[in-house]
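Input chain follows. Return structure tokens only.
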Amino acid sequence: MILSDYEYFRTELGVLYKGDCLEILPLIENVDLLLTDPPYGIKADKGSDGFGVKSGKKYNGNWDSKRIDVLKILKGKNQIIFGGNYYADILKVTNSWIVWDKIGDGKFKNPFSDCEMAWTSFKFAMKKYVVVQQGFVAEEKERFHPTQKPVILFQKILTDLSKGNELILDCYLGSGTTALACEKLGRKWIGIEISEEYCAIAKKRIETEANQLKMF
């Protein structure tokens, strides 16, 4: 198969491919930054709405049954891997971690973990981003995926760690957060997602965002 065979949806800035990222990644050449949140192998697909919160809600399939071979997805000039602490025995040792602080000053009760970590290939002092996870995902009203990240969090990361003309890749796009952040910032993007359900969700969210941006 060729790359276009996997195409599911595109905007003026980006394209979503449906399929196994390990099949699609070798077909993609020049990428500047990989920003992704892969399966951790902690069975979040078995009814978890976040660490410590068990709702019994099940999310599409068996996707978190085991750790991926994270070395096979390290595409691009630089990489940011959320949940990198679950792969610390595999990834290169680094001091350049990103910490997502979910509680800030602690004003809001937080049922999830206080923070999450992302491994990076960059060279900088450890960075912390405070985006309070109130309710489900920061200011977002609906939760589509158990490991869904706030769009504003990814906007902040991309503003700091990418340039306007760079191409951003997310090979586990899920409900579309990385693509949404790119659309808001005017960044070019590529997304890969194996699930038909999440491709449809991501497409709807991205279309809505792209159409809203065209109005301004």
